[in-house]
Amino acid sequence: GSIVDQQGALYGQGCFEPGTVKCTFGTGCFLLKNTGPKPANPENGLLTTIGWQMDGETTFARDGGVYIAGAAIQWLRDGLQLVEDYSQTEEMALSVQDTGDVYFVPAFSGLAAPYWDPFARGTLVGITASTKREHIVRATLESIAFQVSDIVDSMGGDIDVLRVDGGIT
After folding, report:
1. Structure pTM?
2. Could you tell me if 120 and 105 are in contact, meaning their C-beta atoms sit under 8 angstroms apart?
3. How many CB atoms sit inside 10 A of residue 2's CB?
4. Distance (Å, whole) CA 17 – CA 93
5. Is the CB of residue 159 less than 8 Å from the CB of residue 35?
6. How far is CA 6 from CA 12, 49, 87, 110, in A?
7. What is the bridge-based pairing of β-strands 103-105 and 57-66?
8. Strands 47-54 and 57-66, how do they pair?
9. Structure confidence at residue 4 (pLDDT)
10. DSSP of 15-67, one letter per residue?
11. Which residue has the higher pLDDT, 154 or 157?
C-alpha cells in the first residue's frame, strides 16, 4: 500500500464517513474533509483530492491548508526570542485577558486556503506602548485558530467530526 501524509492522517484518524474532518498541526496546518465517493467541486478556496482508493472504490476529500502554524511559534522563539520553549506559549497567552488589540497575520510565505495569495506578507498591527510580549504570543496563537476557522467555514456546515493531531496540539 501507499498513501501520502495528509491522506494517511485522514485515514489514521478514522475519518471514514463523509463529513468527518482531520486537522494536522505542524509547521503548517492541513485540514481534509471526507466527502465520500464523489469528488466535491473545488469551491470556496479549497481543493478536491483523493483520500484513498481501496477495493476499487475511491474516497474523495476537500483539502485546505495553512502555510504557517507551528512555524509562527518557532518565529516567536527563534526570531523574536519572546519565548524560550514552545510550552510557554499557552501560559503566556492565558496570562492576559485578550490580545490588547494586537493582531497578527502570519503570512511569511503568502496565504494558502482559502485565499491563495502568494504575495501576502506577515503583518503585526495594533502595537502600543502598553503591548507586552504576552499580547504578541496570544495574537500569534489566535492567528492560527482564525486561519483554521476560515478553512472550516469554507468546508461547509455538514462537519460531523473534527479530529486534531500534530506537534503543536
Report:
1. 0.90
2. yes
3. 5
4. 36
5. no
6. 9, 11, 25, 21
7. unpaired
8. antiparallel
9. 86
10. --STTEEEEEESSSEEEEEEEETSPPP--TT-EEEEEEEETTEEEEEEEEEES
11. 154
Signed CA dihedral, 147, 151, 156, 158: sign only = negative
Exposure pattern of 120-136 as b/e (b: 16+ CB <10 Å)? bebebeeeeeebeebbb
Tell me which amino acid residue 43 is.
Answer: E
> Cα separation of 153 and 38, whole Å?
21
Say how far apart CA 49 and CA 57 lie, in whole Å: 14
Chain-centroid distance, C-alpha 133: 23
pLDDT in tens, 126-151: 999 999 999 999 999 999 999 999 99
The type of residue at 86 is Y
- In the block, residue with C-alpha cell 479549497: 46
Instruction: Report whether 86 contacts 142 (CB < 8 A).
Output: no
